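Problem: given the chain below (204 residues), write out its structure.
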Amino acid sequence: MVPRTMRLPHPHAPAALVLLLLSGTIPTGCSSEIPTGGFLSETSKLQKSDLTQEMYVHVDEAVTRYDRVTLEPLVVRFTPQKPLPVALRDPGANDAAYRGAVEDALGQGGRFKPANRAGRGVLTIRAAVTDRFQRDEKDPGPGPATLELEAVDSLSKKRVFAVLDPAFAKRDSGGEQTSAADAFARFARRLRMRLDEAAFDAPK
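Solution.
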């Protein structure tokens, strides 16, 4: 889906990205590829793009309206039929790695500062590690776990953007042997990259 209202691309965006944004030819996949029943109940608008490196993303509102964030504790939600990957079996380590990685990535360059409470210009971020793409043993999907995240306006609770990353804990050398710190750091870098590339407003 191509937003109707667009801003100029980020000045440091790659030339190929600029051309894609201006031409409206951003490659997307089909949202029906997302299995149902995960942490995020609404995924119909999420689309896969080469620019997001296997992430499914949808930006509902202008991210530039916000400059502070609060992070809710990370949720871990796996079905009994599929055990947790080894790297994600320490809940305390998971939350610390997630929180540190996301806060660091979003805070680079002073873009998003931590907030202690809800308020104007504050995003509330909620996320979970799930097995949304891992529930069929015959077709295990792209990685050992999925990270599902959404950011909502802290006052209105309206969604600003949402992300599904079915490959966040995946290593090129294979699967779940990555550490929790590496997995969340990789996700956070790609999330920040994607938000910096979101050079458009949502449809009015």
